[in-house]
Each structure stands twice: as C-alpha cells, then as structure tokens.
Write a structure and sequence with these properties.
The chain has 305 residues and is α+β, with helices and mostly antiparallel strands. It has one helix and 15 strands; from the N terminus they run H-E-E-E-E-E-E-E-E-E-E-E-E-E-E-E. Strands 1-3-4-6-5 form a five-stranded mixed barrel. The longest helix has 60 residues. The protein is globular.
Amino acid sequence: MKNRYLFGLFLLMGLFLLGACSMITDEKGSVSETSNTKKNGAADKVKKNDKLYGELARNVASPEMLKHSEQFNQTIHFVAQVEGEPQQIESKDDTLNGEWYISVFLMRNRNTPMYLNLSAIKKENWPKNGDILRIKGTPIGYLYTSFNNERLNLLDVEAKTIETIEFQDEDVPANKIIETEQYKIELTNTDILSDTFEEPCLLIYYNFKNKGEFRAISPLKTYFTFSQKNEVLATTILSSDNEQLDSKALNRGALEAGEEMLYYEAFKLVDTTTPVNLSVYDDEYNRLNYVEISVKREEKKGDSI
C-alpha cells in the first residue's frame, strides 16, 4: 500500500513538472514567434519600398517606357523633394492649357526630376521650394520639355494629395559605418588632392558591400549628401594616372550581390578650412546618419576620418 502511495505521488510530481516545462516552452515559442513576425514584417516593408522606389526611379530615367510598368495609371504613395516653383506648361497640346506643374526629385535620382501636376491641389496648399512631400499620385505619361537647357522626357505624375513632411534629426547617430538592409558602407580614409582642374577636392575612400539581391551602384552616389557652408558639394574628376590614388579603389561600376569592394569619390571643396558635413538618408528622406569630416591638410597621406 505504501509503495502504491509513493508511486502515485511521483506520478503527480512528474505530470506537474511536464506541464510546467510545456508552459515555459510555449511562452518561449510565443516570444520567438512574435519577434520573428516583427522582424519579417520590417523586412517585408523594406523589400516593398525597395521595389516601389526602384521601379519609380526606372520610370523617371526612362519615362517613355512607362506603359510597360506596373505603375502606369496606378495610384502610388511615395516621398520626393521639391525643387523650384509651380509653373504653367506652355505647349502646343491644348490639353495642357491651364495645367500647373512643379519638379520633384527622388532620393535615388537627384539629377532627373519628375513633373508633378498640381492642378487637383488647392493653390493655398501648393508646396514651396525645398519641401519634402509625401505624395499620392498616378504616373500617367511623360512631357517632352526642357530642363537645365536640355530637351528631356520627364515623367508626368498627376497628384491626388500631397503632405509636407517635417523630420526631426535630434537622435541621428554619428558613425562612419552606415548599414541598412540593402548595403553597408564603411568610411575608411580621406585625403585632400587637386582635381583635373587644379582645384582642391576632398577624396573619400570607403568599403561598399552590396547586401541586396541584385547588382547595385554605390549608394554614396545617391543617398549620401556632402555639404560645406550649407552648399552641397558636387563630384569632380581626378586624373586616372594620379599617383596619390589608391590603385585598388574603384570609382565607377556596379557591384554584384553579396560582393564588397573598396571605392573612392572626389568632391569639389568650397574652401580648405571648413569641415564637410555628411548626411545619409533613406528613400523617404529620413536622415540615418551624420558625420563631420575635417578637411585640414596633413602631411600623412590618407587621413583617418
């Protein structure tokens, strides 16, 4: 009888411990599942944004191919920056009479604008030069027009709604390693050289790792802004036989997915005393990073940032 009692007691204790372990395992599994769900959700958002802005950038670059795009005559939401003031289009096409446009730029392509039709927006709500807009609009075609004294096809987007965005930069990190879901950039060295026009320039060396799924150009050419005295620095050209250049560094060329290489870029300086400010952004103009770069000349080649 006593043995049966002990056996029953051990059996109850075993069942209790088994239930407790099961509860702990379920809790851990639940936490892990929630964490994975959040991580997968963030990754999906990054991929969705990458697809949106990638296709939109291609349409900006080749608007005559718009009819072959999924975005043709579809309403999309995106962020772009205004440059210039609203203007009426002068055209022999009577359908454009009275239509008002403003040029806006994607972060991925700050050289070529798209034309945003403001005709459906109340005039008191029209944007100003420099505004960053969240736009709900429809790519409907392209306009054959003039920009920077050049005849170009510019993507025509009909704005449905616009919202001016105000960003807060208080908590922006200041690191020389900038990493996103798509790339990793590590700023390594700087130097002060003379470009082919015998003007002083800032030389930036950096490692670029392509973390995306496809070949990609360096994000330094798009998402990175170098400025001095509030003036954005333009890239400049160095002589290919410049002996001060690191021969292992590349300046141009796309990088295969998963690859990492040393690159360089040269920027024409405003002066040789004021530090250069580097700001890094994402597709929606959120500021990701800030670095101050000294331009003080040193005897040693390849000054560290």
